Amino acid sequence: MTQILNGKELAAQIKDEIANRVRHFTMEGQRPPHLAAILVGDDGASQTYVANKEKSSKEVGFISSVYRFPATTTEAELMESIEFLNNDDEVDGFIVQLPLPKHIDERRVINAINPNKDVDGFSPINIGRMVLGEEAFLPATPKGIVTLLQRYGIETEGKHCVVVGRSNIVGTPMANLMSRKALNSTVTLCHSKTADLPSITRQADILIVAIGKPEFVTADMVKEGAVVVDVGIHRIADSTKKNGFRLLGDVKHGEVDAKCSWVTPVPGGVGPLTIVSLLENTFDAYLRSKNLKK
Ligand code: NDP
């Protein structure tokens, strides 16, 4: 029987745990953790993501601040505010919401973030630390997926994990984490140039899909009994829905779910854990900056 990896429920539980820990420190007279976000331009999806992060931060008792800049902001102006946040002792961690307008070099901006405040885990220092197995801020989505698998007690050791998609923020770090000693999977990382993708995905005990194509993975690509994690999220216009759209993943759930032992729904699977991971990273940054114990 197929079981659901319920990210929404787990995220609520972890948020409660974080909120209790925050309360513990504030009752001792410490200031709460502080997560800041920089948002450049008026991209609708980015605004929604930042609003969700702000809301979740407040729910767990963090201070949340959002620095909004117009799309015409120059790279130099953005760098100035990064420098300000890098040096602000009242801010434990901050994120720069991507994508940035085309005239700004994203890599240069990310590289400028103080690695000790880089709670998105996108800076080369944090990625390097992750690959070396050192303490690091892990990128939020892969970290959230690891949390989901571990909290649901999914066996990963010795399993064949196939990751589809090799982006810097999802697929590549995901493959790395699954192959590490804590998880001990044997990993295959696939991408758009992979030959005969279905023959590889069909070998997966754990299939993690992050390709950004609605309902790309069909039942014939999945082994009976596989654990399937769907990272994709797509808004598809749907006039029958009250809000005018429905959400689809990268997996065709209508036909795939019946073959899975465990599967993440869309929405309510990976997404809620992504935000929780950001909160966890911020809380860790807070503990570190204030020399508090975990
Ligand atoms: P990217 O577009 O950065 O990367 C997509 C990857 O998929 C690339 O590596 C690409 O290969 C690969 N790919 C594309 N087409 C194929 C194909 N036909 N066969 C095999 N591989 C293919 O996407 P992201 O990793 O940023 O995001 C993936 C999805 O996850 C999106 O839908 C995004 O919205 C969602 N997402 C959801 C999050 C959440 O919290 N739920 C967080 C982040 C992302 P190549 O490298 O060769 O081009």
Brief overview:
Helix content is 39%, strand content 16%. With 294 residues, it is of the alpha/beta class. Helix 1 runs parallel beside helix 10, helix 6 crosses helix 7 (171-179) and helix 6 (140-151) packs across helix 10.
What does the model show?
It is a single chain. With 294 residues, this protein is α/β, with parallel strands linked by helices. It has 2 domains: 29-114, Rossmann fold (3-Layer(aba) Sandwich), CATH 3.40.50; 140-270, NAD(P)-binding Rossmann-like Domain (Rossmann fold, 3-Layer(aba) Sandwich), CATH 3.40.50.720. It has 10 helices and 11 strands. The protein has a 6-stranded parallel sheet with strand order 1-11-8-7-5-6. A 3-stranded parallel sheet has the order 3-2-4. A two-stranded antiparallel ribbon has the order 9-10. Strand 5 (160-164), helix 7 and strand 6 (186-190) form a beta-alpha-beta unit. Helix 1 runs parallel beside helix 10 (270-289) and helix 6 packs across helix 7. The protein is globular and about 50 Å long. The two termini are 38 Å apart. The model has no long low-confidence stretch (mean pLDDT 96). The site of NADPH dihydro-nicotinamide-adenine-dinucleotide phosphate has 25 residues, from helix 10.
Topology:
Elements: E1 3-4, H1 7-27, E2 34-40, H2 44-59, E3 63-69, H3 75-87, E4 93-96, H4 106-111, H5 124-132, H6 140-151, E5 160-164, H7 171-179, E6 186-190, H8 197-201, E7 206-209, E8 227-230, E9 234-237, E10 245-248, H9 253-256, E11 262-263, H10 270-289
Parallel strand pairs: 1-11, 2-3, 2-4, 5-6, 5-7, 7-8, 8-11
Antiparallel strand pairs: 9-10
Helix pairs in contact: 1-10, 2-10, 6-7, 6-10
Bound molecules: NADPH dihydro-nicotinamide-adenine-dinucleotide phosphate.
